[in-house]
Structures are given as structure tokens and as C-alpha cells.
Write a structure and sequence with these properties.
Blueprint: H1 3-14, H2 18-21, H3 58-61, H4 76-79, H5 120-127, H6 143-146, H7 165-174, H8 221-225, H9 239-248, H10 289-292, H11 295-299, H12 312-321, H13 368-372, H14 385-394, H15 441-445, H16 458-467, H17 514-518, H18 531-540, H19 587-591, H20 604-613, H21 645-648, H22 695-701
């Protein structure tokens, strides 16, 4: 509102005519640009003192600053010290002096409210966001009881320690049950005290290295600790408290028996009396009748530590008096567990399977005296003949002794039944297969020879070998090893595997009969060269004439066993492998003169006419090399390129001259009869401003064509 509007408001309020008022000068608004009607605070009856109307909305006029709590009743001038209201600061410290001297910042609303500057609810809620949230009695404690004022009268907050001792040091020093200071207890009160109630302190002994159980739970601290509480000051071993109990124990005498000072081996915290020792934790767990035995039965001698655990240490008398059998005489081991158990001493049972001679078959039913009637147990022989020598000597079908059979009966007999012996020929050097399996022993051993009987085929089949005529085995010097052609399944229908020889059969050779190659009766030492069978084929061949051309007699160079015709020669195996257009050339194109062996491999040997007749350029006149590969390839004869020019003479396919000549030698070699001559000036005439340089001078300075 401008000053004129303000003035008109006053005119209307006083009831003056507008016309008269229009003659009055403008008055400057003391509140500045305040967007509020004057009538909201002033009246026509009295301009001052101003009274704020109940309809005035401070939140709207103050851009969100709501008047509530103590702010609702405070005088305007308390905050608006000048008449320019909109210049008032919103910061709390602009009206409220900071008693904390900026220690906790200027955001007063974190702890204070407009309702009350000392509202504990807000302060407590704010305290929960600090590094020391309030719990229990701390919630109702007066702030200054913890946040004492400094020498300057300032409350301390952020620099305040959170340690219990800072507030409760006097409580710690005055505590006598127990004496905290004298016992050097921890200053961390939380170990025993809670913020809910200070007096009902309780220490959780389970947080130490010695958790309390059983009777220890009902003991007061002084019974164990006296006046010593610091960590490590009191031993946690049983004997640390029970040394007198250990020393005074007489049933049994703990000290004399060298019992462990760890009482938990027999005693519990639930009850000291009625100790029970778990023998199973020792090297001798109790089983069977040993469980019911009293300690005195074994430890009557007062020996506990180092007591022998061997059976004989308690049962020596039982061992010495045993007569069925006599243990001492038979040199039985003194380890009773071999036959006896802790369940019952009598009814001993010996497990023969634990020896080097497990019992099987009829041996299981045999009594001990049947084998050990001689009283020998230790070192008793385990060989069959040690018990069955008479059976061996009396056997006649066949006569075991005469045939020099092994005295190991298990080769033919079993423990299940003595008769019906069966010999497994497969365990010998001559396993039986095919028709041999059905043969009787006499068919091979009728001569009574078993040991050292020959295993060669001819030892039984010599007559068969001598009488065979198709082919005649003896005449052909066939080996006497019949397995080369015959099998034990059937004697007839012999088949010889030629692949086992130095000449395996392939292709058409597979279907050839033996007579086609061995018609001369020669088998042993038969030549394996091609010409030994194909000499006639070699001599009669005219296309080309093998003999005239001095071809080798090894037919495999061109022929295969699959088909004798359609021979193919692999030129790659020679000193002149075929490439490019040479691959499609016929033999006659190069070997039309009939020369194969020693045929020259030089280009000019075939291309002399091409060399002589070439006129662009004239090879002969230009004295070109007769080695055509310098410019030509076997892929295409025309479009020759002399690529060696760059390396040997002058770069024309690379460098500055690349693509600058007309792809014709005559561009530089203007004398077709002498390519040793060349011309530079024709293209580079004015390079040196017409000075008379010769071509040789050009080359002497520019041998690589560079400027």
C-alpha cells in the first residue's frame, strides 16, 4: 500500500470528504512494503496503540512463520524491533540469547519448542539422536547433573564424555560390597549396573572365562574372590579353590595316585560327593564284565597312572593255569582278546581267519586236535601236504608221485570236497580252447608225461603236418606252428592271414588264389617285388614304353592294387613338381621325345622356341636369361612381369616410378637390341634446366629413382 492509499484510509476513517482529502500530501508508510490493510491493526478512533485483529494471519503475512505457544502472546515489538516488519530475522538467536555459546548449533528446535523453552519431552527426544541415548533413570535426570557448567557458567554438551566414571566416580569409590576401588573392578558400570535401577547390580559371570554352574551359582563373590577381582588375578583351575580337598582325599588317595588336579574328570559342580570317573576317556575303555568291576579289582595295588592295559597284567594266573589247551606250552599270545571277550571268560572262541590259514569248507568242521593233535600251534605248517602227505602218496589215477604233481593240493582239490578233483588247465602255460577243451587227459598225456610236456602244435600234430599235400607243408617249408592257419575250433578250413607277412594283400590281390602267385610252389622266400609277378606286363607296355623309358620296376609308383589300368604318376615326388598350367599338360607334351629318366628341368628345355620367337621384347637379341621364371609363372605365360627389376637394378614397381611408365619395357629401354642401355632424359628432360646430363649421370646420382 502506497502512502496515498494509507492517507485515504485515514480520511475515510475520520469521515472527511474525499475531495478535501485529495488536497492532502502523500505520507511515507513506516512499515515499508507491507501487504496488509491498515485497518487490520489501526482504527480511526486511535491510531496508536495498534491492536492486531484476530483475523490477522501471521503465517500468511510472515511467509510461513506461525505464531503458536509462547510466541502467540508475545508483544510484536519483542521480535519486530523496527516498524519495518518484513526485515525481522527468523533465526532463534535473533531474539533468544544462546546460553550454549554455539556449542550445539543454532537449530534450537531440535531441543526446544514454542510451547516451552524448557520442554523435557523435546529435549529427551533430541538426546536419543546423540551418541548417548537416554534410558532408565537417565531419562528423568536433570540436564545439569550431567552437563555441568564450565567456569564461565556455560553448559557443556558436545565435549561431554559418555563414560560411566565421569558421573559415577563417587559411587565407584564409595562402593564397599564389594570394594570396587580396593578390588580394582572395572570402571565400566554397565558390566553390573543398569540405568533402570542402580542398586540391583548383577554381574554375568558367563562373560568371563569361567561360567558359573551348579553349586557355584549359589556362592557369594567373596567365597572365591575374597578381595581380588581384577581379570586374571584369580585362577580358574579347580585346584585353585579345591587344593585342600584334593590333598585330603584318601579314597582313593589323589596325591599318591597322581590324579589330575582337574576335578572335572570325576566331580561336577552340581554335587561334590558321589564322584564318577568315566574310564572311557582313558586308553582302556571298559566293556562287558569290566564295567561292573570295582576300582580295587584292578587298582588294588594303588597304581592308577601308568597302569598296564595288557590282559595278562590282570589275568596272568588264568593264562598259566589253562590246560585245554595248555596256553603256556603252546606258546599262545598273552593277548586274551584273541579268543576271549569281556562279556564272558569261558566259552572262548578262536577266529582262525585272523591267522595265515583261514578255514574254509570241511576245515571249518574239523576239531582243533585233528590238525593240532601234535600240540603244535605256533609255527604249524600251512601246506596241504603237511596233513595230506598219505593221500598224495596213495593217489593212483593219475599217479601223483610218479607224474611229479605239485604237493599243493589246491591245484585240483578244494576244501569243500576231496574227491571229484578238477584241474584248471588255464593256469598252465597251455590254456585249453576250442576242441582241446573236450579232450580227455589221456589223449595228450597217454605217455604219462605231465610235467614238462611240450606245448608246440607239432608235438601232437606232426603226422598231420607231414601228410598234408594241399599245399605240401613239408615241401613248402611251412612253419610247424599250426596256429598260423588253423584254430582249435576246427582243423579243416584253414585260413592264412597274409597280412601277418611282409606282403599284406590289398585290392585285387585279396581275391587272387594262392596258386596265382605261388603256382611255382615257392612260399618261403617268395619275392615281394612287383616285377616278380608283373615282369611280362612291364616288358609289353608301349604307352609309354616302360623298358625303353627305363621306368623303375616298382609298379606302385603309378599303379594301385585296386586297378592295374588307369595308372597315375605323382609328378610331385620328382625333382620337378607340377604347378599352374603344367598340371593340365599331357605326358607327351613334355616327354614327346620319349625321354623320361634324366629329362632336363630347365624352362628353356621345353620353351626354347618360345624364347627364340618372342619379339616384344626380342629375348634372344636382348640377351635375356633363359630362366623363364624371372618374368613368367606357370599360371599364365602372357603378362610377364620382371619383379626382380626393383631389387637388382632400378625400382619401377615401387617408389616414385610406380605407375609412371606405360607398362612397356620400351618406355625406358629405347634400344630393343640392348637392354643394358636405358633412357632417363626422355621423361626428365628439363629437370636440371636443360643442362646436358647423360643417362648414366642420372643413374649415378639417382640409383633408386629418388630426387
Amino acid at each position: 500500500m502506497n502512502t496515498r492509499s494509507l492517507f485515504l484510509c485515514g480520511v475515510l476513517a475520520l469521515g472527511l470528504p474525499i475531495a478535501a482529502a485529495a488536497q492532502r500530501p502523500d505520507v511515507k508508510n513506516p512499515h515499508g512494503p507491507l501487504p496488509v490493510p491498515c485497518a487490520a491493526c489501526h482504527s480511526a478512533q486511535a491510531w496508536v496503540p495498534a491492536h492486531v485483529s484476530s483475523a490477522f494471519d501471521h503465517a500468511r503475512a510472515g511467509k510461513g512463520f506461525v505464531l503458536e505457544g509462547a510466541h502467540a502472546t508475545v508483544a510484536c515489538k519483542s521480535c519486530h524491533t523496527s516498524l519495518t516488519f518484513q526485515g525481522a530475522s527468523r533465526d532463534c538467536v535473533s531474539c533468544h540469547k544462546d546460553p550454549h555459546q554455539g556449542e550445539v548449533g543454532t537449530a534450537c528446535a531440535r531441543c526446544h519448542t514454542m510451547r516451552s523453552f524448557v520442554d523435557r519431552t523435546a529435549m529427551t527426544r533430541a538426546h536419543q539422536l546423540t551418541r548417548f541415548p537416554l534410558t532408565g533413570a537417565h531419562v528423568t535426570a536433570d540436564c545439569e547433573s550431567c552437563h555441568a557448567r564450565s567456569a564461565q557458567g556455560q553448559l557443556t554438551f558436545t565435549t561431554r564424555s559418555t563414560g560411566c566414571n565421569d558421573c559415577h566416580l563417587k559411587d565407584y569409590q564409595s562402593a564397599k560390597t564389594p570394594d570396587h576401588a580396593g578390588g580394582n573392578l572395572s570402571h565400566n558400570c554397565e558390566q553390573c549396573h543398569a540405568t533402570v535401577a542402580w542398586q540391583t547390580a548383577k554381574f554375568d559371570h558367563n562373560t568371563t572365562g569361567f561360567a558359573l554352574t551348579g553349586f557355584h551359582l549359589s556362592m557369594n563373590c567373596a567365597q572365591c574372590h575374597g578381595g581380588a577381582y581384577p581379570a586374571g588375578a584369580l585362577p580358574t583351575t579347580c585346584v585353585g579353590c579345591h587344593q585342600k580337598d584334593y590333598t585330603g582325599a584318601a579314597t582313593p588317595n589323589h596325591a599318591q595316585a597322581q590324579f589330575s588336579t582337574d576335578c572335572t574328570g570325576c566331580h561336577t559342580t552340581a554335587s561334590w560327593a558321589g564322584a564318577n570317573f568315566n574310564h572311557n576317556t582313558t586308553a582302556f575303555p571298559l566293556t562287558g564284565a569290566h564295567v561292573q568291576a570295582t576300582c580295587d579289582k584292578c587298582h588294588g595295588d594303588g597304581v592308577f597312572k601308568g597302569k598296564s592295559t595288557t590282559c595278562v597284567s590282570c589275568h596272568q594266573t588264568d593264562y598259566d593255569n589253562a590246560t585245554t589247551p595248555n596256553h603256556a606250552q603252546a606258546q599262545f599270545p598273552t593277548d586274551c582278546t584273541a579268543c576271549h571277550t569281556t562279556m564272558t571268560w569261558t566259552g572262548a572262541n578262536f577266529n582262525h581267519n585272523a591267522t595265515a590259514f583261514p578255514l574254509t569248507g570241511a576245515h571249518i568242521q574239523a576239531t582243533c586236535t585233528q590238525c593240532h593233535g601234535d600240540g603244535v600251534y605256533k609255527g604249524k605248517p600251512t601246506t596241504c601236504v603237511s596233513c595230506h602227505q598219505t593221500d598224495f602218496n596213495n593217489a593212483k589215477d593219475p599217479n601223483h608221485a610218479q607224474a611229479q604233481f605239485s604237493s599243493d593240493c589246491t591245484a585240483c582239490h578244494t576244501t569243500t570236497t576231496w574227491s571229484g578233483a578238477t584241474f584248471n588247465h588255464n593256469t598252465t602255460a597251455f590254456p585249453l580252447t576250442g576242441a582241446h577243451v573236450q579232450l580227455t587227459c589221456d589223449q595228450c598225456h597217454s605217455d604219462g608225461v605231465y610235467k614238462g610236456k611240450p606245448t608246440t602244435c607239432v608235438s601232437c600234430h606232426q603226422t598231420d603236418f607231414n601228410n598234408t599235400t594241399l599245399p605240401n607243408h613239408a615241401q613248402a617249408q611251412f612253419p610247424t606252428d599250426c596256429t598260423a592257419c588253423h584254430t582249435t575250433t576246427t582243423w579243416t578250413g584253414a585260413t592264412f592271414n597274409h597280412n601277418n607277412t611282409a606282403f599284406p594283400l590289398t585290392g585285387a590281390h585279396l581275391s587272387a588264389t594262392c596258386a596265382q602267385c605261388h603256382g611255382d610252389g615257392v612260399y618261403k622266400g617268395k619275392p615281394t617285388t612287383c616285377v616278380s609277378c608283373h615282369q611280362t606286363d612291364y616288358n609289353n607296355t608301349t604307352n609309354p614304353n616302360h623298358a625303353a623309358a627305363q621306368f623303375p620296376t616298382d609298379c606302385t609308383l603309378c599303379h594301385a592294387t585296386t586297378s592295374f589300368t588307369t595308372a597315375t604318376f605323382n609328378h610331385a615326388n620328382t625333382a620337378f613338381p607340377l604347378t599352374g598350367a603344367h598340371l593340365s599338360a599331357t605326358c607327351a607334351q613334355c616327354h614327346g621325345d620319349g625321354v623320361y629318366k634324366g629329362k632336363p628341368t630347365t624352362c628353356v628345355s621345353c620353351h626354347q622356341t618360345d624364347f627364340t620367337n618372342t619379339s616384344n621384347p626380342n629375348h634372344a637379341q636382348a640377351q635375356f636369361s633363359t630362366d623363364c621364371v624371372a618374368c613368367h609363372t606357370t599360371t599364365v605365360w602372357t603378362t610377364a612381369t620382371y619383379t626382380a627389376h626393383d631389387a637388382q637394378y632400378f625400382p619401377i614397381y615401387s617408389g616414385n616410378h610406380r605407375g609412371r611408365w606405360n607398362n612397356d619395357c620400351s618406355t625406358c629401354h629405347i634400344n630393343p637390341s640392348d637392354y643394358r642401355q636405358f633412357d632417363c632424359i626422355q621423361c626428365h628432360r628439363n629437370v636440371h634446366s636443360g643442362k646436358g646430363y647423360t643417362n648414366q649421370q642420372c643413374y649415378s646420382c639417382h640409383p633408386r629413382g629418388s630426387s
